[in-house]
Amino acid sequence: MPSISFLGTGSGIPSADRYFTSMLLLVDGKHLLIEAGEPCVHLLRDRGNLIQSIDAVLITHGHVDHIGGLPALLQGAMLLGRSKALTVYLPEEMISPVRAWIHALYLTEEGLGFPLDWQSWKDHEAVDLGEGISVTPHSNNHLISCYRTLPGADASRHCHAYSLVITSGEFRAIFSGDLSAASDLSPLLTLPVNVLVSELSHFEAKELAAVLEGADLHALCLVHLSGEYADDRSQLQELMEELLPHVGDVMIPEDGEVLDF
Ligand SMILES: [Zn+2]
Fold first, then answer.
1. How many domains would you assign to the chain?
2. What are phi and psi of 30, to 5 degrees?
3. Which residues lie near ion ligand 1 (Cβ < 5 Å)?
4. What is the CATH number of the domain that holds 66?
5. How far is the CA of 57 from the centre of ligand 1 (A)?
6. Residues 6+ apart with CB under 8 A from 150
7. pTM given for the model
8. How far is the centre of ligand 1, averaged over its atoms, from the C-alpha of 108 (Å)?
């Protein structure tokens, strides 16, 4: 049965009781780390051997609350003697700067002791992760007005943010990443969904409920909550259950919670 460990469920605003975004999806024996917000290396370490067993890291976009823990994860894997290859999937424009960042921290890819592979997402193109598991990135509008300002960057292109659809057999999960509006999810909801993990920082809960009306959705997990919702989670839960009677489960996971789907 697929499970998700909600390692960090906070938004980009530092919080005393929620870490930045990272989640571990365990499906058909594969361990997929979705987002690498701080302090994911510690949270994985807390749960045993996971730093060694992660198969891939899937980064939706380059905001620090989604990737800030990556260097520490790589260094931790090195220090713990990882030998298994690791692939990091991320937006294309991030690969060079992130590799330079790793280098600036006195880490070398050759010195890590395990093969590290960087792969850029290609919009709507499914990536085969083996064991019948695939992940398809769908670009959304979260970074539509963000332009790279690094030297040599093509100013006519905006930065990329993706929502991820992960499938294994009949199982279909959607990780929203950060969005510009709830309607960014609409094209992904035409097929049945076992679980949708959606952020709730950039739009109102009612907008999300409107988009989910008519969707064949078994479970909804709300994460990355804006302050207003984070302050009163039980009210949010009640509201969404009322607005979404057709959704089997509406959940607001705590950091550290593990849910089966
Ligand atoms: Zn975020």
1. 1
2. -100, 140
3. 12, 63, 65, 178
4. 3.60.15.10
5. 16
6. 97
7. 0.94
8. 28
Q: Residue 188: give the domain boundaries.
A: 3-260
pLDDT in tens, 27-76: 999 999 999 999 999 999 988 889 999 999 999 999 999 999 999 999 99
* Distance from Cα 83 to the centre of ligand 1, integer Å: 31
Ligand 1 centroid to residue 113 C-alpha, Å: 31
Residue 7 CA, ligand 1 centroid: distance in Å? 14
Using alpha carbons only, what angle is made at residue 54 by residues 166 and 173, rounded to the nearest 5 degrees?
15
Task: Compute the residue count for the chain.
Answer: 261
Backbone phi and psi for residue 186, each to the nearest 5 degrees, phi listed first:
-50, -45
b/e per residue 235-248 (b: at least 16 CB within 10 A): ebeebbeebbeebe
Contact between 195 and 4 (Cβ < 8 Å): yes
Distance 136 CA to ligand 1 centre (A): 20
74-132 pLDDT, tens per residue? 999 999 999 999 999 999 989 999 999 999 999 999 999 999 999 999 999 999 999 99
To the nearest whole number, what is the mean pLDDT of the chain?
Answer: 93
Q: In angstroms, what is the span from residue 53 Cα to ligand 1's centroid?
A: 25
CA–CA gap between residue 134 and residue 32 (Å, rounded): 11
Cα-to-centroid distance, 59 and ligand 1 (Å): 11
Among 117, 130, 101, 97, residue whose Cα is nearest residue 31: 130
